[in-house]
Write a structure and sequence with these properties.
The structure is a single chain. The protein has 186 residues and is α+β, with helices and mostly antiparallel strands. The protein has two domains: 62 residues, Alpha-Beta Plaits, CATH 3.30.70; 120 residues, Homeodomain-like (Arc Repressor Mutant, subunit A, Orthogonal Bundle). Helix content is 58%, strand content 9%. Strand 2 and strand 3 form a beta hairpin. Helix 3 crosses helix 5, helix 3 packs parallel to helix 6 and helix 6 crosses helix 8. The longest helix has 19 residues. The protein is globular. The protein starts with a strand and ends in a 12-residue tail after the last helix.
């Protein structure tokens, strides 16, 4: 059996969810971003306890098919952007369709209908947050960041960054206080 959880975006999230599963006495095989594989069906009381515990940490169980699919799309994008150390050299629509085994047009329409934005805009928002993170770390040049995140050029990255944040990457980097969004808020 599989449970789906909204707002899981990092390894700390998995740790928190594992803790809540243990508190609820639910046996599980694995906890991945947005997904829990169970060894057996939990009781209604266990599910209720798990849901209450998860909500205290900003997570929630997803029980309808559309929401599960949206969460899978978001999880795939988060993994691609934030948990991938390789250069992103993939077509987004092919990547999403391959990961979820659905036609991209169907997924795109569903995402837009439920989220009120496009998969591409969500992808851009995630990429810009990753650019901010890499700028703050100050370990890579803008050219290296551009390459790693699959931008066609530094100029395109800079243009998209300014359009999204209102700041140039170099000005953002020079700020004493950096305003970043939590991934789950995007």
């Amino acid at each position: 059996m599989t449970l789906f959880v909204r707002n899981m975006v990092c390894s700390r999230c998995r740790m928190v969810v594992r803790g809540e599963l243990e508190k609820a006495g639910i046996e599980f095989l694995s906890v991945d971003l947005g997904e829990i594989q169970l060894t057996k069906e939990p009781t209604d009381k266990q599910i209720e306890q798990l849901d209450e515990g998860l909500k205290q940490h900003g997570f929630e169980l997803i029980d309808d098919k559309k929401s599960r699919m949206i969460e899978k799309i978001k999880t795939a994008i988060v993994k691609l952007i934030h948990h991938n150390n390789d250069t992103i050299k993939t077509n987004l629509s092919d990547y999403i369709a391959d990961k979820l085994h659905y036609d991209y047009t169907y997924l795109s329409n569903l995402f837009s209908e439920v989220e009120g934005t496009t998969i591409e805009k969500y992808f851009i928002a995630q990429r810009i947050e990753k650019v901010k993170e890499l700028l703050v770390y100050d370990e890579l040049s803008l050219s290296e960041i551009s390459d790693r995140l699959g931008y066609s050029s530094v100029a395109y990255l800079s243009s998209q960054f300014k359009k999204t944040t209102g700041l140039t990457p170099s000005f953002y980097k020079s700020l004493k206080e950096h305003k970043r969004k939590n991934i789950e808020e995007l």
